[in-house]
Amino acid sequence: MSKHEHRADLPGHQHQSPVEADEWDERYGEDQMWSGMPNEQLVVEVSELAPGTALDVGCGEGADAIWLAERGWRVTAIDVSAKALGRATRAAAAAGTEVEWRQVGLEGAGASTYDLVSVFYPALLRGDGAIITTLLDAVAPGGTLLVVHHAHVDRERAREHGFDPDDYVRHEDLVAALTDRPGWVVEIAEQRARTAPDGPGAHHHTDSVLRARRA
């Protein structure tokens, strides 16, 4: 999959329950949804990093995880949709890459830490803020957090899909959390033009890119 869009337009992707998993399976339908290309900001931000362990949160059909694995990363990729993970598994086999695919949301990913945690267009419920702690705790000392949001969300369009953007962790929330937390260095927090293929998400033209390093 290429997560060239998406979950930020739709509800609850990172919080697994049987109902939500079924909803995501239904959304993925019978045909491949995404382009199969890695997200461009992933390529830009990660190409120069030394490979290590990586966690791809909300991996969808797997293009980002496969791209990382092809470059020597040891990748764990999580998603709530069994249908998406099935496509990801087949794509990895076709590419000759090894990825650990797990059908869980971020809360179920366990206590392991990773040299890279990447999250593209997440739908992480803000709640009491614990999900931000869970995300940051997944990054190993010396590791990198890369999170990309859509810079401009059409709230009316999102609410038509049953999604209230104000209920979810925003780019600004993460920047504020990292700024207040000792041991973190925010290396990039900026808006950047994006190139989106035709299909879902093509109406988004700007990304909010956050890259931070844990000391």
From TrEMBL:
GO terms for biological process: methylation. Residues 55-143 form the Methyltransferase domain. Residues 1-21, 192-215 are annotated as: Disordered. InterPro entries: Methyltransf_25, SAM-dependent_MTases_sf. Keywords: Methyltransferase, S-adenosyl-L-methionine, Transferase. Residues 1-12, 204-215 have a biased composition (Basic and acidic residues). GO terms for molecular function: methyltransferase activity. This is Methyltransferase domain-containing protein. It comes from Nocardioides piscis.
